[in-house]
Design brief:
The protein has 312 residues and is an alpha+beta fold. The protein has ten helices and nine strands. Strands 1, 2, 3, 4, 5, 6, 7, 8 and 9 form a nine-stranded antiparallel sheet that branches.
């Protein structure tokens, strides 16, 4: 797991937060041009706050959002999910607040890990907490931990919608937002038991997932999805390498993708999971074991090979 907290902070300008949050990824040149202008503006020491400048900037943000909103679901090579919609809303809120003269400190969002989570890490004990649609795991940090938790969740038909991870003093914390594929309610007692068994190496995750695939796999009823693809985005974050994986959805997909990252001793800091019908479009913020970006071309080629194998 990475050693730093993730998420926007009070020292980030609204549009720096936007860029860091991975939304500057649409293929339409106009969107990128407008977003680039906003990014250049946000990085200046004294962003415009005169009434005329504020009016122009607010109009640009509002018009830009209104213009792209109907088109984003059809954007070529990208998929639109709820988390991206939430980020667009948050971008608009932040820019409007700042242009109106608001203090950036008022835009602080929830810290990760927060104080309570840091206390769990400091205790140095394995913890599995679950309820609602969130499961939190604290365990000794080691390669493959993230994938073991994801695999254990898949055994219960739980689809991971988003995940965050961080580390401290040899311990890791992972927080998953999940949804049930098969049932309206979740037997959290069983989930907690199996997740703990999985992270302690007492669960045959691979074999059990294979059995589940044979039992629950659906016959293809829709047109074939596009072939799997892997893309490295060097512009989305300054602190991690963003790896986008697009592939047909199937049981245990996230588990196998995370195993591929673990094979290269890479830390997954954040995972943004989108499932659109039979297609998943996931973004993983990853670093090397020492917290550096993944920049070696040969490592990237081999990682792409491993990821494509994992999702095929």
């Amino acid at each position: 797991m990475s050693q730093g907290a993730t998420g926007p902070t009070s020292c980030q300008s609204p549009v720096d937060w936007w860029g860091e949050s991975r939304l500057l990824a649409f293929d339409q040149p106009m969107w990128l041009e407008e977003a680039g202008w906003l990014s250049r503006w946000s990085r200046s020491r004294s962003p415009p706050r005169s009434s005329l400048a504020c009016s122009c900037c607010r109009s640009l943000v509002g018009a830009w959002g209104a213009a792209i909103w109907p088109e984003i679901p059809r954007a070529p090579g990208r998929a639109w999910g709820r988390w991206k919609a939430d980020l667009v809303h948050e971008l608009t809120r932040r820019v409007d607040h700042y242009l109106a003269g608001g203090d950036l400190a008022a835009l602080v969002t929830q810290e990760f890990p927060d104080a309570a989570q840091r206390d769990l890490l400091a205790a140095g004990e394995t913890v599995v907490e679950a309820g609602g649609d969130v499961i939190t795991v604290v365990a000794p940090d080691r390669p493959g931990l993230f994938s073991r938790v994801a695999g254990s969740l898949a055994l219960h038909g739980l689809e991971v919608r988003a995940a965050d991870a961080a580390g401290q003093d040899g311990m890791a914390i992972e927080v998953f937002q999940v949804a049930s594929r098969l049932a309206p309610s979740v037997d959290w007692d069983r989930v907690r038991t199996n997740v703990r068994a999985g992270i302690e190496g007492r669960l045959a995750i691979e074999a059990r997932l294979a059995e589940r695939v044979r039992t629950y796999s659906r016959r293809a009823t829709a047109p074939s999805p596009p072939p799997p693809s892997v893309r490295f985005d060097d512009a989305a974050s300054r602190t991690a390498t963003v790896v986008e994986v697009q592939a047909p959805d199937h049981i245990g997909l996230l588990y196998r993708v995370l195993r591929a990252f673990a094979e290269f001793d890479l830390d997954v800091r954040v995972a943004k999971i989108q499932t659109l019908g039979d297609l998943v479009v996931d973004a993983f913020y990853v670093t090397t074991a020492d917290g550096a970006l993944v920049e070696d071309p040969e490592v990237r080629r081999e990682l792409e090979r491993a990821l494509l194998h994992a999702v095929t």
